[in-house]
Amino acid sequence: MEEKAVYRRGEIEKKLGTEQSLSILQTIMADDLQVSLLKLNQTMTKLDDHFELTEFDGMIDSLDLSATEEEKFVSIVELPPRVPWISCTFLNAGPDTAYIKINYDSEWVPVKKNIPLQIDFAGSKNKKRIQIIRYKTDPGDTASITVVGKY
């Protein structure tokens, strides 16, 4: 009587009785290994994407902005080195409060005098980066802002 092999992910339950069942088992195990390697490759790709989002190149850039009541903007990707920022810090030297928008967000965020404001897109699920900074003050006010960005 011929013995049959039963394979469960990584283990053999019965001894093999024939050369043919050994060949079949090897094929099944090879197929199982291929599926496992495919899943590992997909996981590694996701990890690579995650690290790309959360790590920056270690470079720092800075801009000096003069804010008035007139809304202005600066495009980070149009200035050398033409790389969007992963995070930035706004430092307002005053004399008044300024307001900023990042990219096309709809809400103005206040940048108060002498209180740093940190914006960080590290790990952003939608791969968002800082590309455009819009800025202004209240009517009649002015502010000098330094922005330090990381990419």
Shape: rod-shaped
Could you please say which CATH topology of the largest domain applies here? Jelly Rolls
| Uncertain segments | none
**Architecture of the largest domain, according to CATH?**
Sandwich
Mean pLDDT: 82
Give me the side-by-side strand order of the main sheet: 3-10-5-8
Number of strands: 10
**Amino- and carboxy-terminal Cα gap:** 69 Å
Record keyword descriptors for this entry.
4-stranded antiparallel beta sheet, Jelly Rolls, 151 residues, 2 domains, 1 helix, alpha+beta, single chain
Please outline the helices and strands.
Layout: E1 7-8, E2 11-12, H1 19-54, E3 60-67, E4 72-75, E5 87-95, E6 98-102, E7 109-111, E8 117-120, E9 132-137, E10 143-150
Walkthrough of the structure:
This protein has 151 residues and is of the alpha+beta class. It folds into 2 domains: 7-54; 60-150, Jelly Rolls, CATH 2.60.120. Helices cover 24% and strands 34% of the residues. The chain contains 1 helix and 10 strands. It has one helix at residues 19-54, and strands at 7-8, 11-12, 60-67, 72-75, 87-95, 98-102, 109-111, 117-120, 132-137, 143-150. The protein has a 4-stranded antiparallel sheet, with no helix packed on it. A 4-stranded antiparallel sheet has the order 4-9-6-7, with no helix packed on it. A hairpin with a 2-residue loop joins strand 1 and strand 2 (11-12). The model has no long low-confidence stretch (mean pLDDT 82).
